[in-house]
Amino acid sequence: MGQSIDDKEITRELWQSRLPICFILSDEDMSKVNRSELPEPLYLMLARHSYFPCIIEKIHRYYSTYFKENVNETTNNINLANLWLEFESIPLKWHYPIGVLYDLYASSVSSTSHLPWQITVHLSKFPEGEILRFPDKESIEAHYMSTIKEADALKHKGQIIGDMQKRDHKQLWNSLLQDKYDGFWNINNKLMNYTDNLQYFRYIPFRVYIVDKPFIQKLFSPYDIDQDKFMTLNDLLDFVLHHEAQCELLANEKKILNTNVDDYQVIIHGIQPPINTPIQWLSEHFSYPDNFLHICLIEKRT
Amino acid sequence: MSTVEGDENESLGNASNSAVTNEETSSNTTRSGPLNDSEGGAKVVFLLKAAGGAPILKKKKWALPRSKTMGHIVEFLKKYMQLDSQQQQQLFLYVNQSFAPALDTTIGSVNDCFSSEGTLVLHYSLTQAWG
User: Fold this and answer.
1) Of B37, B40, B112, the CB nearest to A218
2) CA-nearest residue of chain B to A235?
3) Are A109 and A298 a contacting pair, CB within 8 Å?
4) Residue B37's closest chain A neighbor by CA?
5) Residues of chain A with CATH 3.10.20.90
6) Which residues form the signal peptide (chain A) (predicted)?
């Protein structure tokens, strides 16, 4: 794929995109505040490509001031491990990038939400089994690096990430945490190279999200050798929906997903890219810092 | 895993997972292949291999419905291997001997992407063998 200066500017714009979020304490936890003044909503501008656990300490510190620590009364203590975030009754998975969660749950036409994105903070009644507890910083970093390795396994059989020094791996994560675009792309550019005499990635790292379903991930080459042409976003989604529907049929699912791409809004980074965009180009420019294309499909309401 | 089936003698040719067709090798396939529906349930067959000094299982070949998650396998292994509470803290599942998918990833999607010549191999470890 030819690189132009404009293409690189796109990666910089995506890096800088933010979401205004308003955190509100749940009614249940609000009733346990033992101060005369109740917590005001907490407003934060967060990077779409970041993860909630990266700012969990900020949230924890903010609400800690409203709960008196009492060694004999454990119910009033904030236990960070019990903290969870919720939007319209949906517990939010901490290991999904913030932008993906917004695109999937808050951007649909039928949603009554508007910006800032209003998220409820819970300090109790952790929904065991629905989500994992917020982990420590090392766990998020491990999850991020694992995702990068998986992406490279798909793109390059793991050759490029395997040849990189540990300090390069560290630079990817630290640049993400510290919001350093240049520091990040100095290393990430290597992951966008081609190997094996190909002019494209072996397979595209992508995940397709549809509400109430686990994400869908499949093998898909960005180039069709027989037809001698590059595959588009439409080609990928068409294949993914039909293959997944076949899986559901074989598993005797009661409800089979809609396989018509036109019936969905296709959202990446909060926008709807033209459906005929080459998927190789999207992988190089629209991937999240974890090197995956996170594609949200929102069913259009007729 | 209550839905486990398949004995040591079951030939891999009957496995219902396939990222490749019988005619192609994994290096030539351009996308996840058609599903072999002879099993009628679209189960994923996978091999569990020990790494990082973890105990070796007598039964290595297992089968699960596509929708089961990696977390389901981890929880099952913790009980099956009768790990003590100290060991139970950490059990890691690796794909490609390089990465550990998030625990809510389905075995179906891991299989669609990383099975090789009809088999999915997962390594389990009590240490972070591959980071």
Assistant:
1) B112
2) B31
3) yes
4) A250
5) 199-302
6) none
**What is the distance between the alpha carbons of residues A281 and B20, in angstroms, rounded to a whole number?**
26
| Largest CA-CA distance found in chain B, in angstroms, rounded | 47
The CA-atom distances, in angstroms, between B116 and each of B18, B27, B59 are: 8, 9, 20
The span from the CA of B120 to the CA of B48, in Å, is: 9
Instruction: Sheet containing A42-47: give its strands across.
Output: A42-47, A18-25, A117-122, A84-87, A90-91
Q: Is the CATH number 3.40.50.300 carried by domain B2-125? A: no
pLDDT in tens, A196-239: 899 999 999 999 999 999 999 999 999 999 999 999 999 999 99
To the question of pTM greater than 0.95 for the whole model, the response is no
Please choose, from the candidates A292, A90, A295, the residue with its C-alpha nearest in 3D space to the C-alpha of residue A210.
A295
From the options 3.30.300.110, 3.10.20.90, 1.20.1250.20, 1.20.120.1810, give the CATH code of A199-302. Answer: 3.10.20.90
Q: How far is A277 from chain B (nearest CA, A)?
A: 19
Name the residue type at position A59. I
Give the B-side interface with A, CB within 8 Å: 19, 29-32, 34-35, 37, 40-42, 65-67, 69, 95-96, 98-106, 108-109, 112-114, 128, 131
Which one-letter amino acid corresponds to residue B130? W
Establish if A90 touches chain B: CB-CB under 8 angstroms.
no
Q: Which CATH class is domain A19-132?
A: alpha beta
Exposed, middle or buried, B82 (CB in 10 Å: 0-12/13-18/19+)? exposed
Whether residue A215 lies within 8 A of chain B, CB to CB, comes out as yes
Q: Are strands A117-122 and A18-25 parallel, antiparallel or unpaired?
A: parallel
Please state, in angstroms and rounded to a whole number, the distance separating the CA atoms of residues A131 and A94. Answer: 8
pLDDT band at A138 (very low <50, low <70, confident <90, very high): confident
Query: For an interface test with A, which of B26, B37, B112 has the most A Cβ atoms less than 10 Å from its Cβ?
Result: B112
Is this prediction's ipTM beyond 0.95?
A: no
Asked if A300 and A211 touch (Cβ cutoff 8 Å), the reply is: no
To 10 degrees, the CA torsion angle through A155, A156, A160, A166?
Answer: 60
Question: Measured between CA atoms, how close is A64 to chain B, in angstroms?
Answer: 28
